[in-house]
Queue: 3 jobs
Job 1
Amino acid sequence: THQGRWRHWFGFELRNDPFDTYYFVDDDPTPRPIDGYQTDGLFDIGINYLSQEWEREEAPFCMCISVEPPHDPLVAPRELQQAWEGRQIQLPGNFAAESEEQRQTYILNRQRYYAMVENLDDNVGRMRAFLEDEGLANDTVIVFVSDHGEMGGSHGLRAKQWPYEESVGIALIVRDPRCERRRGTVIEDPTCTEDLFPTILGLGGLTPRNQLPGVDLSPLIRGDMARLEREGVLLQFVAEHRTWASFHEEVWRGMRTRRYKYTAKGDKFGAKPWQFFDLAEDPEELANLVDEPGCREEIARHHRRLCDRLRETDDPFVLLPAFGCGGVNMWE
């Protein structure tokens, strides 16, 4: 892992077992075990650093704590996991299973996933309590984000990879003590990972030296603007090298706007229109409208926007002609 410009680097070894985690400090190659559950241990490292090593007189701090849970294998601290396994949980309307055995497996996986989420939530609360106790809460911006979601039995699927909201519709949560009047505000504009770097700089009052592909969301967070000028963001599933996994043979791209989601899927010879959902009327994505004549104009508009975005980003994805648009990355 690359330390980059971080003054101190605590890099943990990816092991996909939250009870078997080791980390490394800066350039020291000595592995250091985390006793207990990974999320608890990594937050301990962050809190201990701020309380024991960071000197307030030096400069403002920027800290990133990145944890694996919730993630396979679905295991949480024992008491928390047992508590969730004993609870009745509410299932979404798009939950589906091919058999009763699969249904019970999906439910058990959800219960354990929720236990892992509660543990993470507890640790975020623990960090917030520390910042309060140290008098730092009113001078610290907290950004919470994930890299993907979990299907958890929705549409009869598990894991990630799919363009459904359970997989790609992850939250970006910001707590800025300077914007208390904005507390609880929900912003409908879709965002993407390219926005994170300019947004974090913007929250710190900084401007990137170079032009970046993302958007600084800090004016939107502060309420200085009502909505973003751009209409939506590009969704990508670039490659799957595991021969047994979904999308090994075909991958997809999509456009997610405030109300709609359009995707195209295909192999190296070209992708075709695949899905179109009206998320305002159908938030659980139960009705694929891609072949609905009444939606053709809106689908065509999203297809054109996808074509434009693929060209703007030099995306090598091959998109076949459709809705009056020529192909993208086609052999001539």
Note: The chain has two domains: 10-170, 233-312.
Job 2
Amino acid sequence: MYNGVILCAAMEYTEVVQNFVLDHTIGLSVAVSVGVVLWGIRRYVKGPRYYGKRRIDGKTVIITGGNTGIGKETAIDLAKRGAKVIIACRDITRGNNAVDDIKRLSGSTNVSVIQLDLASLKSVRKFTEEIHKTEKRLDILINNAGVMACPYMKTEDGLEMQFGVNHIGHFLLTNLLLDLIKKAAPSRIVNVSSLAHVFTGQLNFDDIAKREKYYNAEEAYTQSKLCNILFTNELASRLSGTGVTTYSLHPGAIDTELGRHWRSKQRLIREPIYFIYSLFTKTPYEGALTNIYCAVDESLDKETGKYYSDCAEKAPSKPALDEGAAKKLWELSEKLVGL
């Protein structure tokens, strides 16, 4: 009797479902189609996985901004591969917390943090002095830290913040560590740029350092990312024959702290846009894969001065290939940092 009631109820439920499907065929078909398309877009944005297993035991790695986002995920991966990992970040408390996480997640104890504020050339010099006291070589430098679309601010040295942090701070850091990097050859320098560089034209050398005449946060960001690629290219040229190779890259669209300044403006408009955007972004780990690829993959041992995205070589914008602009940027940067 009891089983019969259950069977009857199940049959009635099945009939209701069948009728609903028949009555809403078009709507359900559209919903399924939209779902499949959205899943496809999300899968495309995430990009391919990187499965390289190369070990880097005994090698020393420095990662700026290694306390959060893709920098932290990069640190975890390289620590798992046997590297000595030094993360460089502005907030030493957050840095120490990150070190604890990296050690726990990687199983490595060879992870440390040194304070570095890329908005201060004095801090950059102090950081490199500390590195020279403790390290005899540097195998991999990953210039990962950055700021995006912030309100108009200046660095400690009077430079526009995005140009100062994203390019100038890393320019000085790299140059002051070059002796250790050359000693470790074959060694690598990885500069994290962005696809955003395609949304700007030639560098505005007239006002790029301070932007006191006119400031647009998004334009300043895209130009600073163009600087990353031009710096990588010129660095490759100057380091030819030394065994040091350079790489610039776009990590992908990632939901990290980097977008905090962009979201803080016009919140009523930008927060909903950012929410939709975040549905199709990479995780920090997925965003770190091209970092890791450029840092360790065997296929890149002889490559230098190229641009990568989704663990593959890609063509940057035409202005990013301007050798004259790369040399001019280098000369300007030398003057600004006093080299």
Note: The chain is about 50% helix and 10% strand.
Job 3
Amino acid sequence: MSFARNGSACVLSAALLSGCGLFGDKAARTAEVAEPAQAVQRMENATSRVDTYRCGDLTATLRQFGDGSSLTVDGRSWALRLERAASGVKRVAVDDETTVFWSKGDSARLELAGVSQPECRLAGGEERSFRAVGNEPGWRLDVTANALVLLTDLGNTRVVAPGPLVEEVDGLRHYRAGTPDGEMSVTVAKRLCVDSMSGMPHPAEVEVNWQGETLRGCGGDPAQLLQGDAWLVVEIDGRRVADPQRVTLAFGDDGRVTGISACNRYSGRYALSGEGLHLSELAGTRMACAPALMEEEQRFHAALATVDGFGIAADGGLELQSAEKAVIRARRD
């Protein structure tokens, strides 16, 4: 890292914490009275990248400069620091550890003062047709109509390969595009891929070749594996469902989940993030049915309340998971 970058990082840290050793006791005294907003303003003045997200009715702007970053939500700003995470990029406010911005791909999870906000989605920019991510080292690839865009080194290295050529061969999709530093090639195979760190399933395996290095990871939107025809629940907590037609799950592309829960109809919301699958706002009708159906309905809702992830079984079935254990199994006709 250059001295200039270290200096920038020290200036930010000195204004918000107790500073780098470069500033000595004076930095410690300054930190007691310095406003975080001052450091944020300095960072905004030298911003190298800006991303805007929509989080329900909120607008969140992430600005990145060297090793530092800032977050602005509806007029209020925070300086952020990186925090180690199993997947994605997790940033925590320097002066408030309960304010968190955790991004992966074009979505992010936002907490303000410990309160979870609606899922954030990247807004604006050129429409992409495909995204892939990988780990060790972490990287991200966006495929658009006009370019292949590869990000590595926590987003600090960005390579744009314009005008990709596309061809389909034996069920594989290949992209090739040139840059001043050499050719970039990408191969996409439409088969299930599970992220090596988060455990999140994706609809495609991806291989990127760039400057003699091969990057392997997963691509496509995981939500595509959930969406489509309704799932028929065949098992709840290890017990077979009497009639799968009466216990169903349907994931819409609008973020809603609906279905039948043995007796009543229900609806709610679902969201995917770096941490997994989250169900919320579940509610349903209150019709009375036979005791056996009511008992099955209660078990179904109890299982739904514990869901924190999902997987796709070898036979194509859906597994809704809690602590990496399948609590609901479903299939499609």
Note: The chain has a mean pLDDT of 84.
